Amino acid sequence: MKFSTKVSILAISLGIFSVGIAFAVISNSDESKIRELIFEYQIALNNEEIEKISTLYSKQAIFMPPEIPAINGVEEIGLTYEYLFSQFDFELEFDIKEVVISENFAYVLSNSEGTITLVDSQTEEISKNQEIFILIKEGNNWKISRYMFNSWS
Length: 153
Description:
The protein has helices at 3-46, 50-56, 74-87; strands at residues 57-64, 71-72, 88-102, 105-118, 124-138, 141-151. It is of the alpha+beta class. It is globular and about 45 Å long.
């Protein structure tokens, strides 16, 4: 094999390797941003930060809690959280089980555990849920596009 051919093959191999590293860095960066988003959601939920929660959802988001119709749009979702916080105090911790990213879409599978306290009676209940977050990338930021969960306790 000629020296120039070997150099060309080496250059192409290094280029492919560099692209692979760049893709891995982008994916790791996106995964970090997604994990941070779920952590921010956990904090905002536990601290009853309605405005913060609203910034984590996309404008066309859909929130699908069990046993009630889906809530459409970030404004309606904000009102739903306002109602929820008037009824319950949350102390939940999310454990991310899986993050899958495909270009501008991703999903997160998680479990949450903790307590939910009824505001009026101060009755505390153990809560164990499994969740799926479907995310969309808007610019450089990931937002919750769809969120659904159910209890497994």
